[in-house]
Design goal:
The structure holds two protein chains of two kinds. Chain A is mainly α. Chain A has eight helices and no strands. The longest helix of chain B has 42 residues. Chain B is elongated and about 100 Å long. Classes of the chains: A mainly alpha, B alpha+beta.
């Protein structure tokens, strides 16, 4: 990945974005990012498509001195979480209904606990601040080195270090009640 | 961090875990881990979260090229919607006129007929190709940067468009461009307004099915499928076999070459991709190509050209391509 020197390289001379180049470079990563938040392939694609569509309509302006990747990740983060927020009331009801209808207590305790940790981790990750989440995600899911993340987002390596540490600290804080039991499960 | 003592911070633990730490930092963390059991437990939590979070990874199985086409459809639909909105505004005006006429003429059938005959609309394509159906049922595809005005089976064109004309023997369909006229009964053909190097404005008509009659001043030519006719807007018409199918790219997204000179393909590629291509040896422009490129990237097309002609060598330097 080349160093991101701001959005200038992604803009035509008239200030409009090179849509195809940007789309083909970042679609997959952004789609995966949205997927981890909304947990739905088609919906995630819709969110990413809608974001690029807004860029095309020039409703969303990007400035030359910000990193395009940082802008795109931030937009996907907010759009995805907004979607979750809107779907929340409906979802809460559905989960309530499923919980009471299914005989989920028949599952083994181990599986339940692992599934529960995953669920808790998912919820905890959705509560991470935007930059923290994006950097954690790029490090964990896109397997990028600190230097690559810094280049892509146009930030200092030190910021990446801070944010990954912060992400693990926040996640641990949210999950600490589940963790001792799990260590037992893993070790036996 | 309270638990992370001895200057071992969460940032440092994360670096150690992710193998981003320097030798000295690794040593520092190891010393810390060999300390109180509490330290090891704290680090285990980080490891566990890191390992477990991998389970949440989503991998995009969507093909970005396909996704890009879907985005283009969306943009295309939005462009169409704009054109339709523009047309609907006009329709309201005509509806009002029709109501007025109804009051005067006192007969619905009369007004309906007259509104049909004089129905007008204007279409405009800016940065993307626009497809639409005209009030008489004829279909039209406008290339980018094209305007078209329709009024009762007569259209005025500036730019390039492909027409599929709904047959109606009693009312010939006419395309007027730069003063010249194309008259048709029912057929499909492409019209492109041009500015010739001599400075005069004219047009180029290529027929796909049926036949059309092109008039420039007092001169008239019948054009058959596979033929092309050029005009200069001042009564000069030249007819000949159509040498290439490249004109249809904006509509079909295919580069179709049937014995097409390389020079013509290169000119088309330059226009479509907005890139500089320099053919260093002019003789190479006359080489004939037989190939159809559909949804291929520019690099793929260039590579096919290079493989087809052993005497050709292609170099790419950023936005400039050299054919040698």
């Amino acid at each position: 990945m080349e160093k991101d020197t701001g959005s200038a390289e992604w803009l035509h001379s008239d200030g409009t974005i090179m849509l195809e180049k940007a789309f083909k470079t970042y679609f997959k990563a952004l789609h995966a990012y949205a997927c981890t938040i909304v947990k739905d392939d088609a919906l995630a694609e819709d969110i990413v498509q809608q974001m690029f569509f807004k860029l095309w309509e020039k409703k969303e302006r990007i400035t030359v001195n910000q990193s395009l990747a940082a802008y795109l990740y931030r937009a996907v983060y907010h759009d995805s979480l907004n979607h979750l927020k809107h779907a929340k009331v409906k979802q809460a009801y559905q989960q309530h209904a499923v919980y009471h209808q299914s005989g989920h207590t028949s599952k083994t305790a181990d599986k339940l606990l692992l599934g529960e940790l995953e669920q808790q981790l998912y919820l905890a990750m959705n509560e991470l601040p935007e930059q923290c989440r994006t950097i954690f995600q790029m490090s964990r899911f896109e397997m990028l080195k600190y230097q690559e993340i810094a280049d892509r987002l146009g930030i200092a390596v030190k910021t990446v270090e801070n944010q990954v540490g912060k992400a693990l600290r926040i996640l641990r804080g949210r999950l600490v009640d589940f963790l001792p039991l799990l260590i037992l499960l893993f070790n036996r | 961090m309270k638990e992370a003592t001895n200057n071992v911070t969460d940032e440092l633990l994360a670096k150690y875990l992710l193998e981003e730490a320097t030798m000295a930092e690794v040593e520092q963390v190891r010393v810390w881990l060999s300390g109180p059991a509490e330290n090891q437990r704290y680090f285990n939590h980080f490891t566990l979260i890191w390992e477990q979070s991998r389970e949440l990874a989503a991998h995009s199985t969507v093909d970005e090229a396909q996704a890009w086409l879907r985005l283009q459809d969306r943009i295309f639909a939005a462009t169409e919607a704009r054109v339709i909105r523009m047309r609907q505004r006009r329709r309201i005006v005509y509806a009002a006129a029709a109501v007025l006429l109804a009051a005067v003429a006192g007969g619905w059938w009369l007004t309906r007929d007259s509104s049909q005959a004089t129905k007008q609309l204007a279409l405009r394509a800016d940065d993307s190709v626009v497809k639409d159906t005209l009030p008489d049922g004829s279909r039209v595809t406008l290339n980018k940067h094209t305007t078209l005005e329709y009024k009762g089976r007569k259209v005025r064109l500036d730019g390039e468009a492909f027409f599929e004309i709904a047959p109606d023997e009693r009312h010939p369909f006419e395309v007027i461009a730069n003063g010249d006229t194309v008259q048709v009964l029912g057929t499909s053909f492409n019209v492109c307004t041009v500015k010739w190097s001599t400075g005069s404005d004219g047009m180029v008509v290529i027929v796909e099915t049926g036949s059309v009659r092109v008039r420039s001043g007092s001169k008239i030519e019948e054009v058959q499928p596979g033929e092309v006719v050029s005009s200069d807007g001042k009564g000069y018409l030249q007819k000949g076999p159509n040498p290439d199918q490249l004109y249809a790219y904006y509509r079909t997204h295919q580069f179709i070459c049937n014995n097409t000179p390389l020079g013509m393909l290169v000119r088309k590629l330059k226009a479509v991709y907005g890139i500089k291509i320099i053919v260093e040896n002019r003789e190479l422009e006359h080489l004939k190509i037989n190939a159809t490129f559909e949804d291929d990237s520019l690099d793929q097309i260039l590579s096919v050209i290079e493989k087809t002609f052993p005497q050709i060598h292609i170099e790419r330097h950023g936005q400039q391509i050299y054919i040698k």
